[in-house]
Specification:
- With 288 residues, this protein is α/β, with parallel strands linked by helices.
- It is 39% helix and 14% strand.
- The protein has helices at residues 3-29, 73-76, 114-125, 136-141, 143-151, 171-177, 180-189, 206-214, 235-245, 261-274, 282-285; strands at 56-58, 61-63, 91-93, 102-108, 131-134, 155-158, 196-197, 219-221, 225-226, 250-255, 278-280.
- The strands form three sheets. Strands 4, 5, 6, 9, 10 and 11 form a six-stranded parallel β-sheet that branches.
- Helix 3 packs parallel to helix 10 and helix 9 packs parallel to helix 10 (261-274).
- The longest helix is centred in the N-terminal third of the chain and has 27 residues, at 3-29.
- The radius of gyration is 19 Å and the shape is globular.
- The two termini are 13 Å apart.
Length: 288
Amino acid sequence: MSRSGSFMRARIATVAAVGFLGLSLAVGLAACNPGPTTTTGLGSTSTTGTSASTSTSVVGLTSTTGLPPSTTASSAAGGNTSGWPSRPSAEVVRHGPTDKKMIALTFDDNYQMPTAYATLKVLEKYKVPATFFVIGHYVDTGPALAKAIAKGGFEVGDHTRSHANCTKLSKRGLRIEIGNGTDHYHALTGAPIVPLFRPPGGFIDQKTVEVAGEKGFRYVVMWDIDTNDWRGHTAAQITDNVMGNAHNGAIVLMHVAAKHTAEALPGIITRLRKAGYQLVTVSTLLGM
């Protein structure tokens, strides 16, 4: 069974379980209405342009959840009172294993703009197996770009419904946002998706990783090289940023529709490969 098939079956099973549990809770809530239990052990963390100050190494990856991989969302919160099936919290990663010369180029924000198509053309020309993180709203309003991503055979993970700051949302709000991008992308294109979630702006907290896990996501994917291309940096600045920070296992953050990203990519791709780096998807980098 493919990874995307397993992921989609897990998502369908979760929805079915939620429907049953929601019916049971509706009866119970008539008698009492206890408040939800929320754990915020991570605090709110933004890593745009920065690296995390604390992390623990887990099987060659970097985890910043503050929880061991076996810890479930319900045990972390002192018991599952949400009505959702208990699943492990998603693991936060900022880079992959450093024992191989692999780097993953990743692209956020699937805005329907000419620069986005230019970026896709470069990646296709140089045969780069990149990973995209899509926003549900822009899948709906720019279906042609989503279809172009699917046609290019690129790996696709989730970037929420509306590019919301996850730390500002309740768990109910997170359950609406997380997974919407990949759900809508798959519904539109029928193309495979992977259980990878990237929080907009890099803003995460404990409830975000818990809900990501509940929704079937295995990893919350951050980055350790931020090109800041969305700020309008020149192609030379973007290239110098990547090449000056390149290392084994790096995850590079770029934006598919940024002004100079397509212009910078040929030099980045050529120079990284010349330096001996293999460009791979995030799932390959993490050994999924």
